[in-house]
Amino acid sequence: xxxxxxxxxxxxxxxxxxxxxxxxxxxxxxxxxxxxxxxxxxxxxxxxxxxxxxxxxxxxxxxxxxxxxxxxxxxxxxxxxxxxxxxxxxxxxxxxxxxxxxxxxxxxxxxxxxxxxxxxxxxxxxxxxxxxxxxxxxxxxxxxxxxxxxxxxxxxxxxxxxxxxxxxxxxxxxxxxxxxxx
Length: 182
Fold this sequence. Notes:
By secondary structure, the chain is an alpha+beta fold. The chain has two domains: 6-102, 2-Layer Sandwich (Glycoprotein, Type 4 Pilin); 106-172, Dna Ligase, domain 1 (2-Layer Sandwich). 28% of the residues lie in helices and 26% in strands. The protein contains four helices and eight strands; from the N terminus they run H-E-E-H-E-E-E-E-H-H-E-E. It has helices at residues 6-24, 66-79, 134-140, 144-154; strands at residues 42-49, 52-59, 95-102, 106-108, 120-125, 128-132, 168-172, 174-178. It has a four-stranded antiparallel β-sheet with strand order 2-1-3-8, covered by helices on one side. The chain has a four-stranded antiparallel β-sheet with strand order 4-7-5-6. The relative contact order is 0.18.
């Protein structure tokens, strides 16, 4: 797990917020590196507006410093999630940020090795891929079967694709940073 003290957690959330605010104000620029966030890690940035999903984009790969991933994923979640229109300035005050800092994904033999609430899941089948963060199933109240069925649909596959022998599952964990709790 990526280790972060309270100051680093706050710095990560401030970085995501400042990035989005700068872009909304038309003064988009790349921020300076954040020393506490230099280690490479994958991460997702999630926006909630009035308790509902407003954007969520991330990258699994740990090939860049975490601060750089947070900047890119904050912008993508606010302005590039294809499920939503770009964030508008008047929406921003109603939004809350969440950052999920990921461990590397590892393959599992099957659904029996997935622990809901602890593991995020990556489903690979028929040349497609879909991801759910560890908190998704718990927040939605889904069973493992419901989670895998919805994950298959998210990948654009038939709902039972997760049962097929050519389907591969990977799991990962996440350090969840939420505004007001970091």
